[in-house]
Amino acid sequence: MAQLSTDTLIYSQIVARVQEFINEYVAKKAISPKLFDEAYQKVLADIQKTLGGVSFDLNLLSKGDIPDSETFNKMIKMMSNDLNIMTNQLESMSANYINTFNNLSNQIEAEKNSILRIRSKINALEMYTQSPSVDVMYFGDSFNNLSFVNAKKIRAGLIPDIEDGYATLAKVTSRPSKSTVRVINQNYGGAATSQISFADISNGLKGNHFLYYKDAGSNQFLYEKDSSILRSTESAMVDGSPATYFEYEAINVLASQTTTRPEYEFQYFDNDKLINWANFDTNNPLKLTVELSTQSQTGENINYISIIPFFGYDIDGANALIKNVKVTSIKLYNQQTNTTYEIINNGPVYIASDPSQKTLVNYKNFFYNKGVFRFNETKASKIYITFEQDEFKSTTIKHAYWTPYEIGGTNKWSNQNRFLPEAALNSGAQSVSWDKSLIVPKVTNPTEHKSNQSERKQIVVNYTDQVSSGDKYQIKLTSGQNSYYWYKKDLDLNIDMFTTKEGSVSYHDKQLIELTRLRLISTDYQSACVLVDPTKSTLITGKIKMSTISAAGGLATITTSAPHSLAVGNKVYIRDRWSSVDIVGNFTVTAIDSATQFKVSISSTDTISTIDISNNFGLCIKVIDKATATNAVVETAKESISKALQVPLVLQRNFEELKAMRASIGIRDISFGKETFQESAEIISKPFFVSGNLEMLSLYAADVIPESSTNQAYIKYSISVDGGINFFPIQPTERNYTGTPEILVFNQNLTNDATLPLVRYLNSGKDVGVPNPINSVIVKIEMKKDRSSNNTPLLYYYKVGARFR
Are the beta carbons of 620 and 574 closer than 8 angstroms? Predict the structure, then answer.
């Protein structure tokens, strides 16, 4: 098995401390020779003191101290360095003692799938060598740091950049672009705002306004504790500060808690409408799409985007830490050409706080702590990035509510613990109104009613009530199953109009309305009672234009010039004259002969000859029952008027804890720009020590070689088994065969007819650089870019499979 170098831990600690010293010097924290010397001596002392142990000092904070102080940040930074070194040590030991796949957790199945091709070739060689051995080991590097790189052996000027889990050419220049940022396509509560048609929606709310730090004192909201540096603002995503951040969230308060509390307590004002912030559908992921705009309207040439998430608060009981942020889309937009270019083409990319989630299968779709996306240099004026979070966690939020008190007293208004005027005034009150903006915040300023200066508010509740103004009278006529109310009399037609109770008129003079009733029920009064709709422009809608009338034997037959729309049992009022015979009164329809002819019963026995009356002034109209002493009464009611009233109150703010489900997306910093790289780089590994008779080697590599018109970019691999003096080219097994062997076989001394293609056979005494036995293996990797391009080859990891006899 491979041997772990004993100086790896010390080396990592020295590198971390020296890197910190260099960063401080570059930042001009040590500007004088004296200060520089003091800082240098302190580095030496710290290295001497902390080698092999922890490097951070525990500086406890007193209650009330701001946790973003320089002392706190320094301690956290040193602790983070120690944790990173420890993590890398564990990964290195795992890689050396088992295989590179086991650098990260849960990789047994991934290992089986990725080495099938290697094992198949080894098994093929066994058929020729007749070797019964299947003793295979693996070793390699996943480029989390320089632990497995022998920097002393690399030629001057060819040292690569190794960070974030991959190796690249060394950067010559890095020019970040300045930008502005905003959240776009806000779609909270289903009100879509598609500002950018080709970008996804944002369906959450800005900021973290409900989580709090539960201590023995004030139980402050987190935003209150962080307010001194204005955290959780959109501009924090591009300010370059590691202390600031932007957080986007979605909350679902348990339904049993929202139904027992006033709706306004869970609302924001969004311009002129109200939206509920507490009912996010947890079956859908939280999404955030941001737009970054370059300062130049014509765009800038860029070839990288860097994203540093904010993974939440480490607060006991708040459940505010998240494991990862998912990036589902990155689009570059060129405003001049109106074209877009998608960076993520193979599924979402995760940026996680947990390094154990990274596997050799997801190496292209996983970043630890920081995501750096590299691509061919592209001109863009805007960048659209969509983040997604489908993990909702159970948490406790701090919720504000208001208790109403009467002005000048300590008594609760209407004995209410929570301000709800609609419930207090629903007995007799017709309408209730109050200024919701006094206690319902705007969506652009959700914390405006939560600050310490807002514990009491004065509010006026406006309502209208019904006040009695005396008796009022109406004439009610019952016709069949219905009741109608007198409206007015048409003097020209000599008919009385009735309507519904709501459409009628009330009178305060009882004597006058009684006289009207007596007139209606008088036996000598030949009139008609018709039903009308006072809201229509034509009050009489039942007029029927007659053409002829003929009467005989107690029946009158009437023909009409248009369909009469009558039915048997309907009543009509007819008034007309023929020669010396008058026909006037209310009649009942007894038969319907046709759509334009019907019969009514009459008391006259005289015969009326059929005569054309279409041009006279006779009247035929559909009526209701005639008023009588029994079906027409005067109805008395109490009249009331609306009176505007006001109740001035004092509201006292209180807080409570509610259970909720919460998802969040935190962004500490997003940057993009243009980087240029050296033309070449090389990686020479530290020796991987082996024991036993090494028989053959195979190589697997995860790399990306940028495409170009000249195809000058490459990544080449070679193996040395004599301590790095001589190297033999080898090609990763997943590439198409181009003449470079995929397997190196050592000290087999096979005849030509027993050899295989794609395999190079090397023997001690015959080939220079092949000892027997072989004690170590060194890997050499050469990287080169196309001169015409600013893009760099990427190497994520390599793995060497070694077989022993």
Answer: yes
Is the pLDDT higher at 430 or at 125? 430
- As beta bridge partners, residue 636 has 473
Q: How much is the average pLDDT of 735-748?
A: 87
Q: Which two tokens stand for residue 777?
A: 């293996």
Confidence label for 59 from pLDDT (cuts 50, 70 and 90): low
Domain boundaries along the sequence of the chain: 98-169+680-805, 175-395+660-675, 546-623
Measured between alpha carbons, how far is 432 from 609 in angstroms, rounded to an integer? 69
Q: Is 308 exposed, middle or buried (0-12, 13-18, 19+ CB in 10 A)?
A: buried
Contact 233, 244 (CB under 8 A): yes
Out of 135-139, 363-367, 549-553, 574-578, the most confident range is 363-367
| 162: phi then psi, degrees, rounded to nearest 5 | -125, 110
Structure tokens at 47: 């290295």
Of the CATH numbers 3.40.50.970, 3.30.2130.30, 2.40.128.20, 2.60.120.260, which one belongs to the domain with range 175-395+660-675? 2.60.120.260
Tokens encoding 153 = 């052996």
* Band (365; pLDDT cuts 50, 70, 90): confident
Fold of the CATH domain 546-623 = Elongation Factor Tu (Ef-tu); domain 3 (2.40.30)
Cis amide bond preceding 773, omega within 30: yes
Residue 135 three-state SS: strand
The enclosing H or E element of 26 equals helix 8-26
H or E element that contains 36: helix 33-50
Rounded to an integer, what distance in angstroms lies between the CA atom of residue 5 and that of residue 689?
Answer: 10
Q: Which residue has the higher pLDDT, 582 or 275?
A: 275
Which residues, listed in sequence order, are joined to residue 648 by a DSSP beta bridge? 460
Lookup: tokens for 199: 């970008």
Q: How far apart are CA 68 and CA 58, in angstroms?
A: 15
Instruction: Supply the DSSP string of 528-552, one letter for each residue.
Output: EEEE--TTSS-S---B--EEEEEEE
Q: Quote the CA–CA distance of 207 and 222 in Å, as a whole number.
A: 11
Query: Alpha-carbon distance 72 to 66, whole Å?
Result: 9
The two tokens of residue 176 are 């970040």
Mean pLDDT of the chain: 81
Q: Over range 413-441, report the average pLDDT.
A: 84
